[in-house]
Amino acid sequence: MKYLDQIDVSGKKVLVRVDFNVPMDKSGNVTDDTRVKASLATINYIREKGARVIVTSHLGRPKGKRVEEFSLKPVAPILASLLKKDVLFVDDCIGEKALQAVANMKAGDVILLENLRYYPGEDKNDDAFAQELAKLCDVYINDAFAVSHRAAASNTAITKFVPVCAAGFLLKNEIEYFNKAMGNPARPLVAIIGGAKVSDKIKVLENVIDKVDRLIVGGGMAFTFLKAQGLNVGKSLCETEMLDLARKIMEKAKQKNVQFLLPVDVVIAKATVADAETKVVAVKDIPDEWMGLDIGPATIAAFSDAVKTAKTIVWNGPLGMFELAPFSSGTFKLVDAVVASGALTIVGGGDTDTAIHKTGKSDKISYISTGGGAFLELLEGKTLPAVAALG
Ligand code: AMP
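# adenosine monophosphate complex -> structure
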């Protein structure tokens, strides 16, 4: 696979697949421009080479039809103000309108095409639709990591029809940081896996157990493991159909000499509300009517100790129901411990990202992935189809 800085784009027509799937309010205003900002390094580099930049993305799920609320039009002025340059919005992503707009471009110009998902061929990874996109350019750049785990015409089939294809700087960063953490990491390598369900992360657990020195399991999913050890978990989240798999994972950890850390105490409540009555109890003392919603202080101390000597940390999933204040301190205190460790730290997954932003310490984390599902699939040990297509 080539990266953008390894190919010659000077004077070329370059189609850049970005992820401008930005959040919008009911009036169609963009409420967070993080994803647009994340594309700037790639777009500016191409512009500075005197190339024409044709930016293309999806937004929401219009399911193959033109649906106004999913138009990318409101993103064009945001991109323009960040680039400090006019950006022409073209209200189609293929066909005569798009071809004409490209033909009118001058060196360094940037245009933004309408939502790729207005066409059913996009999500179907359809060759005919990909060929229409390919007609617009001489060079194709993929910089949309967050959708790289789903083969679509604009990230997979298109690579068959454009002679020069490469990864942009955002995709490059994602791949390089991930490989640094999970490929040949500085050790000890510690994984922190939290979140709601074991069933969502079972493949992640099975894969990381082969690679890490220590595995910390917190969040709702920890209760399935505690139950598998014979403890009563009250009304805590627990997937009884996962008990055997949980036992297998703990067995594998033992065989592989991987330190496996579960909560030793928990913050419990009877209701998931911000003013709930809470108690801290040892994991063996959870009463029937109560549920564990955060890790307790002894667990925070043990988990913090386990990351202290880490050289590399990979983190996916919060350690408690951090959205509610009484159950947030486990996740927030672990952020402090991770930052204090000075380890190379890679964080991925929407909720973990949100939790870290709430602490105001995101800039102290080595890398926060821009892809939830794509990051999870990397952690599962999978090859992402859109990345493979660039190879
Ligand atoms: P995930 O998307 O699997 O990473 O799960 C994230 C969600 O897990 C967050 O919304 C948390 O509120 C939730 N969560 C974390 N710990 C617990 C817990 N102990 N009980 C219930 N939900 C939890």
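# post-check
The radius of gyration is 23 Å.
The chain has two domains: 4-172, 185-379.
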